[in-house]
Amino acid sequence: MLNILWFIIWGLLWAMYFALDGFDLGIGILFPFFAKTDQDKKTMLESIGPVWDANEVWLITAGGATFAAFPTTYAYMFSFLYLPLMLILYGLIIRAVCLEFRYKVNNPTIISLLEIGFFLGSLLPALLLGVAFGNIFQGLPIDQNGYHGNLLTLLNPFGLITGILFVVAFLLHGSLWLSFRTEGDINVRAKSLAKKLWFITLFFAVLFLVSAYFVTNLYSNYFSIPILLVVPILCVLGLLGAGIFINSSEILAFLSSAICIIFLTFTGVGGLYPNLIPSSINNAFSLSAFNSSSSQYTLAVMTIVVIIFVPIVLFYKFWTYKTFSYKIKEGEGEGY
Description:
It comes from Thermodesulfobium narugense DSM 14796. One of its GO terms (biological process) is aerobic electron transport chain. Pfam families: Cyt_bd_oxida_II (PF02322). One of its GO terms (molecular function) is electron transfer activity. The chain crosses the membrane at residues 6-35, 80-98, 110-137, 157-176, 197-216, 222-245, 252-277, 297-319. This protein has helices at 2-34, 38-48, 52-69, 71-80, 82-101, 108-138, 151-154, 157-181, 185-215, 220-224, 230-244, 250-272, 296-323; strands at 142-143, 146-147, 275-277, 287-288. By secondary structure, it is mostly helical. It has one domain (2-323). It has a two-stranded antiparallel sheet. The chain has a two-stranded antiparallel ribbon with strand order 3-4. 43% of the residues are buried.
């Protein structure tokens, strides 16, 4: 039971990271194209300023939980996917540096370089995380001799479809967050952009779900245990809700988008179970929640820690988002 519990927690941590840091990454990708003036840039940066770094902690937690609960999976994941994971890490470092120094310099050339870095540091992790998970969903070429692949083999059609889905879903998520946090012209433009991005996200979501049927085994668990179909259904309902509420309720549209991302992640995780990294060569070489986990004692101690500290973290997150849920008035954005 502890193995199953930590498999669920592992999926939940990734889902929370995508749902929370997703809109930060989306705004970073939008940044050079959406902002018309320096005031627009200040407004966009102020909208994520109080929360973006805390959102990234979920990624550290997801990685830490993988290391502690499933150390063998962690070791092989960082061996097999070393280059894309390092590129993701460098992207996040560049993004953080560019955010921190954007308003500490006055040189226009350096400011332009920092803004480009903010864009690339947002795009690269979003795309490569999608590519990485797309390849995990369809299985990696693993056998008794290890991993038979490289960065180019990861850039296969399904991996790229998943990567693009992550990017457009985060763009939609970011535009909805921006409409929730702002007033005036930037609010109107954010809503208009969200409507267009909603259709693009719907297209790639359908393409992902259809492609997954042919190139992955994700549907096997859903066909054998029909009750699990509630997970992809909630994902679809979340996406539909985001489209329905764009004009009527900014907060409901954003929350619907978050629900879509969370249950999209769980759609993949639920299809993977019990595997964390399936082998596309032979399932005997797959790394699962059972053959790659820590001892039962370790999992039990970790469970106690989670029971104590997760409610504290969730309370802090609720307080933070409530505190910084005010509307940024038109022309008054102060930047990061």
